[in-house]
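Example record

The entry below shows one chain as it appears in the dataset: sequence first, then structure tokens.
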Amino acid sequence: MKRKLQTYSLVIFALIGLNFSFSLFAQSEYQSKLSILDEYYAKALSDWKVPGMAIAIVKDGEIIYAKGFGVKDVRTKEPVDSETLFPIASNTKAFTSAALAILVDRGLISWSDKVTDYLPYFKLWDPYVTENITISDLLTHRAGLATFSGDLLWYGTLYSREEIIKRARHLKPAFGFRERFGYSNILYIAAGEIIPAVTGKSWAEFIKEALLESLKMNRTVLSTNDLPGKKNVATPHTDYNEDVIPIEYLNWDNMGPAGSLISCVNDVAKWLVLQLNRGVIDGDTIFSSERSREMWTSYTQMPISSFLETNMPSTTFRSYGLGWGLWNYLGKKIVEHNGGYDGMISQTCMAPEENLAFVILTNKNSNLYYPLMYKTLDTFLGGEEKDWSMLLLDRVKKQKEAEEKRREQKNKERIKNTDTSLPLNCYTGTYGGELYGNAMVKLNGEKLTVHMQPAPIFEGTLKHWHFDTFEITFENIPSLPSGFCTFILDNKGQVAEMKIDIPNPDFDFTELEFIRKK
């Protein structure tokens, strides 16, 4: 996501074997705090069964801590250090917001400009929203779409950014325009495409020139295509059948402005210094303090859950700015964002009043970042002694138990010893709709398969469940649970439609329409 004062001289010691960095000043002033955190981080990594992570902490303009824990890959066992590359996913959004802020500073755009002034092909379901949505609306998740709506348009597909944006007009809104928060990667893709429309440079070119090079983020890349030949790269992992397994990188170029950056904690720490310095680094102004204030201003209110209310009572508001999440904790304003790439979860967090910031990068699908964020905040802001890791592990355990009960209930609803209404070859053919495109159902031997044609990775097998419902599994995506594929018959007894439902926190398969074509 996206993150003229004196020049700071950083004196960094690399402690051999520990990948542990301190400035001379910080080593004496913050030694006790960092020692507590160092021990806590290591234990939490083990407790959460995450292969590896890296963490950097910035205080008063200096990187006072930068260290790797665990391993980059469970197969090679090579250690993580502060230079190890991890995808930072939606932490990219703040970079896109900052890039647009630079264009605002240059007088080339304003936050209130209409999107269609730059992207004439941009359309949403409601013509009024299409005509009135602004650049700031794109960045603040308030267009009326449900959270993650339309993400299957980009995930694993061959669609270009323009094609994704054009197809978004078929997404039905979940609520009114500017009514409430609905996290949207699709709208950040559109926001990123405003950059080439204005500058003639691609989003990647502009981000690299205006931000990465200016900050000397020399390890950071904008695409998985830049990884071949790179050394010191973490591998994504996920839980699978009680094991932790490595999974393949998936290219995210078509949603780049929403989440394709790959970085290390040493580089992200430079980004956080820029943020805390309100757009200034080493005496150079990258974006103005006015733009910084705008990016950290609340635009869209977010609800406070019962869990937050009980466990973080000092948090009395949550909202979203321009590429940043905003809330309060222990009397301080917090500016933060997390990011979820398949097999990699990350968090950036700042307490500007304390001139404090940190980044957490992990290489497994896990909520480990969450307790580490709160432990770090408590340690520096004077919070109570609380074992966030154990508290949240217990919460995860209860969530898994609840999910297991749901699966058991689903199994009870299954009617055994039923047959399909028709021979299997009658279910084969092409199914599709305007939003997503086509899916092919084929008969391989005595098994049906489904291939969602826009995305080569979505090739699944169908196992009969009951009647005209099949269990569907996409073997190429081990982090995705199995779901159900149901064929709908018309009044003539012929297959008219296919519905796919895979309950998961990231992708809404029920949005997709698969009408029988032939």
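Notes for this example: The first strand starts at residue 13 and ends at 15. The CA atoms of residues 428 and 442 lie 5 Å apart.
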